[in-house]
Fold this sequence. Notes:
With 390 residues, the chain is an alpha/beta fold. It has helices at residues 53-63, 151-164, 179-189, 203-211, 265-270, 285-295, 307-316, 332-335, 367-375, and strands at 7-10, 13-16, 21-23, 31-33, 46-51, 68-73, 79-82, 85-91, 99-105, 108-112, 134-139, 170-173, 196-198, 219-221, 234-237, 254-258, 275-277, 299-305, 320-323, 326-327, 353-354. Strands 7-8-9-10-11-18-19 form a seven-stranded mixed beta sheet, with helices on one face. Strands 1-2-3-4-5-6 form a six-stranded mixed beta sheet. A six-stranded parallel beta sheet has the order 14-13-15-12-16-17, covered by helices on one side. The longest helix has 14 residues, at 151-164.
Amino acid sequence: MRPEDILVPTPSGVCCKPGGFHIDPTRPVEKALITHGHSDHARVGHGAVLATQETLDIMRLRYGDNFAGATQAIRYGERLALGGAEVSFHPAGHVLGSAQIRVSCGGLTIVASGDYKDVADPTCAPFELVPCDVFITEATFGLPVFRHHDADGEIGKLLHSVKLFPERAHLVGAYSLGKAQRVIALIRAAGHDKTIYLHGAMEKITRYYESRGIALGDLELVRGARKSELAGHIVLCPPTAMGDLWSRRFPDPVFAFASGWMRVRARARQRGVTLPLVISDHADWDGLTSTIAATGASEVWVTHGQEDALVHWCRSRGLKARPLDIVGYGDEEEHEVATDEGGLPLPAGERVGVRGIGPLDHEPPHPDAARERATSDLSPQGRGEEESGE
C-alpha cells in the first residue's frame, strides 16, 4: 500500500479514504478529525468531529454548541478504529488540547502534525515524538532565518521595560487562544505578581484555561478600569486592538507584540511595535528539521507555510518530500479581529482549495528563490493563506 492510498490532498483538505474522514478540513465534510482549536484548522459545519476534549470545548466557546452535527472526544494515546484505518492523537505542544494525528493502515503509519512546537510551554502538554513512515509537517517558519529566541529572555525584556517605565501601560498584542495564556504563564514564572489586565475578547478562553488547572494569577478586565490605574501594568489584547480607538484609553502605552514574526524587524516597524517579543507557538527552522529527522520518516509532506525550502532540505538528505499546497491554512494571529470587549475575537475569512498537486518527483524552487520571495512578506499571508494562530 502506498501513502497516497491512505491520505490524499483534496480541495477540502487531507482525506483518508480507507477511514472515511478528513483531517482539519477547510470546508464542511461528513467526518472531521481536528488537531486543535485555531479557526484555520477547526471550522464549523461538519457532520461529526473527533478531537481532544479541550479542542471540542474551545470550538464550543468560539462557535456555540451546534458547531457540528455530532462530537466525540478522544484521549491522548487512545487508539480508535475508523473504517479500514486506526487513528490516535498525540500531544503537539502548540496550544491547550492540540494534537498530532497518527493514521495506520496496511502496515504504514502516517503522522499529521497539525501545528506544533518542540519547546516547553506551561499551558499545554509537551510535544510527543511519534515514529512514522510518512510525516506531514507544517512549515509556518520553514526558512533558516527563523530561529526563535528564548521565550524567557523575551519576557525578561518586557518586565525590564515595565520596570523602566512605571508611568506607562504596556500593551502586549497576542493571539487570544494559546499565545496570550502562555505569555501570562511565562510572566508569572518570571516572578511578576501584579494584576495583568485583559481585553474583554480574551476573557472566555483565558478563564477556560484556568478551569483546566492552569494558574495565571490575578487577572482583571480593562473594562471599567481608570486610566491612572493602568499605569505600570501589562495589558494583553488581540493584535488588531492595538491600532483601535480602544488603545487610546491607556497612559502613554508601550506597544509590544508576542509573535514569531517579530523576528523580522520590518514587520515590527510596519505594525508600530516598539517592543517586539519573539515568542512563537510554532517550531522554528531548527525545530522543524530536528523533528523531521527524529521521526524516522522516509517521506515528508509539507503544508502551510514556507514549503519549498523545507522540501529542498528533506530531499538534500535523501528523503522523499513534496509540498501539499493546500490553501486555507495560514496566520490567524495576524488577522484576528477584536470584537468589542464583550465577545470573542473573530478570525478573518480565508480562501480554501488545493493548488498544483504534483508528483513526488516534482522539483520545487531552490530555497534561495523561496527566501527571496519570502523576504518581502515572510508570512503565509503572502501565499494566500490567512490563518494559523502563530
